[in-house]
Amino acid sequence: MKISVDPGLCYGSGECVYRIPSVFTTVDGFGAVIPGREETGDDPEVRAMAERCPSQAITIG
Ligand code: SF4
């Protein structure tokens, strides 16, 4: 499954980048998915990160 970060919701806590630097990065101060890593939505660690994102900006689908 595919993940994405909504920059309109993200407030740049950086938690996703800190916890899973192989999937998330920072662009202009906001969280973003590293290009080519969008298809990691089946990874339990990524799914858990989507649930714990403080602004619910990470979506899987
Ligand atoms: S954890 Fe959520 S709010 Fe924090 S940088 Fe990542 S997407 Fe943005």
TrEMBL record:
Top-level lineage group: Bacteria
Requisite cofactors: [3Fe-4S] cluster
GO terms for MF: 3 iron, 4 sulfur cluster binding; metal ion binding
Protein name, UniProt field: Ferredoxin
SUPFAM superfamilies per record: 4Fe-4S ferredoxins (SSF54862)
Keywords from the UniProt entry: 3Fe-4S, Electron transport, Iron, Iron-sulfur, Metal-binding, Transport
Divergent 4Fe-4S mono-cluster domain location: 1-59
One Pfam family in the UniProt entry: Fer4_19
